[in-house]
Specification:
5 strands
Length: 139
């Protein structure tokens, strides 16, 4: 999904308009098919992703702009350090006009934040999300 979102941003930057939904869903399907997932998982993820893209286009397509947004900003090229630790990774979108960082989350939303003592995949995922949010607030 991240590659597809970048595809939409790049289309907006190059042409001044977002690519049509058919081109976007085709790009997304090709990316999923090349992922190495099983046929069943490709079908499942493809359907889920296309529904999400269609919703995005019907409700939030105005979030893409020709100027003032940097897509997939690579922090490893920025030489950012906190103490001796080098900061690496990518930020999905930086809106330089509004001063906003957009971080796409493509999984299922969490129903609640688990207690820190619970060691599950969901707890670990949410802990990492929290770390991202804390870092972004510093950035």
């Amino acid at each position: 999904m991240h590659k597809t979102m970048q595809f939409i941003h790049q289309g907006m930057i190059k042409k001044g308009t977002i690519p049509d939904i058919n081109g976007v869903t085709s790009y997304f399907k090709q990316d999923i098919e090349a992922s190495g997932l099983s046929e069943l998982e490709v079908s499942k993820q493809s359907n889920r992703g296309i529904r999400a893209l269609e919703q995005l286009y019907s409700h939030s397509s105005d979030m893409f702009r020709k100027t003032g947004q940097l897509s997939e900003l690579d922090l490893s090229a920025e030489s950012i350090f906190i103490g001796e630790a080098r900061v690496i990774g990518k930020i999905d979108v930086v809106d330089t006009e509004k001063g906003v960082i957009i971080d796409y989350k493509t999984g299922k939303p969490a129903k609640a934040w688990p207690k820190p003592t619970v060691a599950t995949y969901e707890a670990l995922k949410l802990h990492k999300y929290r770390q991202q949010l804390l870092f972004i607030s510093l950035y």
